[in-house]
Amino acid sequence: MKPKILLATTSCWYPSARLVMALHRAGCVVDAICPQEHPLRKTRAVHRAYAYYGLSPRRSFARALAASQPDLIVSGDDLATRHLQNLYAAEKRRGNASLCALIERSFGDPGSFPVVSARAAFMELAAKEGVRVPATEVVHNPAELKACIGRVGLPAALKADGTSGGDGVRIVHTLAEAERAFAKLHSPPLLARAAKRALVDHDNTLLWPSLTRQRPLVNAQAFVAGSEATSALFCWQGSVLASLHFEVINKASSAGHATVLRLLENAEMQAAAEAVVSRLHLSGLYGLDFMIESETGNAFLIEINPRATQVGHLSLGPGRDLPAALHAALCAQGAAANGAIPAAEKVTENDTIALFPQEWIRDPESPYLRSAYHDIPWEEPELVQDCVSNRQKQSGWYRRKGTAAAASKSAPSPPVRRVSAPASDASKNLSVIQ
User: Fold this and answer.
1) What pLDDT, on a 0 to 100 scale, did the predictor assign at position 201?
2) For helices 119-128 and 267-280, what crossing angle results, to 10°?
3) Which of 55, 171, 425, 426 is deepest in the core (most CB within 10 A)?
């Protein structure tokens, strides 16, 4: 019998659809709880989708879990993780042992929940495990900010807990910049911004924090000069069973998500992953972000993402196929046999990956769309077309509203496709999709 996964996501993030496809391809039955407009509903890989309602998140999640009865839950974003952690606490008080056991099996030791959700606490734990980390402190007010900047120095990175994709990160070079950034990061989301995110981007992430006037916790972190790197992990009961490590080549914005990555081998990143996973006794899909220091090549761990990341669907060979490792763990295959987990066919021999639609949206003329492996899911044409149509609708909205940054460019042209060649290299001999 195939294991059943419930993918939980609160935002219409395109990588969640890719993960559903990869889990299905690995041999899992995949249900999802997601917004009604989520692109994963365009795929043939999802078995059943349940509605997520941003104003009643706990009830939405409880209903989906009761109906789906999954073997494992996978979180697609930070807010979904927080909802599940809150649901765990509530059900623990009620004595719902079966639901609590499912959440523990999916994410690991519940003692890790407050640590992985708080940047400063996680940095402190990682440092105690011998992992190289930059100095990180929680800042509650402007007076603490000034004192903290005096200790960590400038430039510095200010980061708000509970944010992702660079949305809550500011790099500051002066105390005045730091004070302005802190005021913005420490404020509840504007209702107009939350409404726009929900109506235009189909992302309800900011609705509840805006309505309840939640103030994010802000951290100040010493800046590490160098290049960014990222890791995606599948871990099981405190052991890393599969991992992907990448150097970040291009990003959507200076503090945004990666759009082009290069696969790499980095012993320090792997050791850091194994140390924190073992210490926190984690299970499930996680991401780690690093800075590779320019002068020394040292890898500094800068944060953990307690969820699937946008590269988690990629199958790049034995030990580099997270969905295959997840399937094997649930089927009790290969968890104890080092390197014996069966992996899907490697999608490309090209170490450089241009993520779709991320790099195409960033620059439709990017040379990486042809020189790198352009990761377009041609096997799901409705998903590709949905992405194209949605992007064009968003660009039109921004132009009508006169948003300067978004209106400065017209909507990108649709992606291009190879006419007669294997799907593993759809980046050459291209013809336009209409």
Assistant:
1) 60
2) 110
3) 426
Distance, CA of 43 to CA of 142 (rounded, Å): 48
- Going along the chain from its start, the domains and CATH numbers come out as 4-107 (3.40.50.20), 118-125+225-344 (3.30.470.20), 135-222 (3.30.1490.20), 372-434 (no CATH)
Asked if residue 221 lies in contact with residue 134, where contact means CB atoms within 8 angstroms, the answer is: yes
Tell me the pLDDT tens digit for each residue of 98-142.
999 999 999 999 999 999 988 899 999 999 999 999 999 999 999
For helices 14-26 and 322-330, angle between their N-to-C axes, nearest 10 degrees: 50
Residue 108 is given by DSSP the state: B
First to last CA, the chain: 40
Beta-strand pair 29-34/4-8: parallel
Model pTM score: 0.86
The pLDDT value given to residue 343: 72
**What phi and psi values does residue 234 have, to the nearest 5 degrees?**
-115, 125
Tokens 């120095």, located at residue: 153
Rounded Cα–Cα distance for residues 157 and 155 (Å):
7
Whole-angstrom Cα distance, residue 289 to residue 307? 13
Residue that the structure tokens 């402007």 belong to: 142
Reported as a single tens digit per residue, the pLDDT across 158-184 is 998 766 656 788 999 999 999 999 999
The two structure tokens encoding residue 258: 């990666």
CB distance 309 to 243 below 8 Å: no
CB atoms within 10 A of CB 412: 18
What is the residue-averaged pLDDT of the chain? Answer: 87
How many angstroms separate the Cα of 52 from the Cα of each of 64, 79, 131, 210, 258? 9, 12, 37, 18, 27
**What confidence tens digit (pLDDT) does each residue in 291-324 have?**
999 999 999 999 999 999 999 999 999 999 999 9
Which residue is listed with tokens 């992007």? 391
The one-letter amino acid at 383: L
Residue reference for tokens 């509530």: 90
Q: Cα(80)–Cα(395) distance, rounded to whole angstroms?
A: 27
Residues in the chain with pLDDT values less than 70: 162-166, 188-213, 333-340, 392-434
Nearest to 380 by CA among 2, 3, 13, 18: 18
Give yes or no for a contact between 246 and 258, defined as CB atoms under 8 angstroms apart.
yes
Which token pair is 165?
């994709």
Measured at the alpha carbon of residue 316, what is the angle toward residues 312 and 320, in degrees to the nearest 5?
Answer: 65
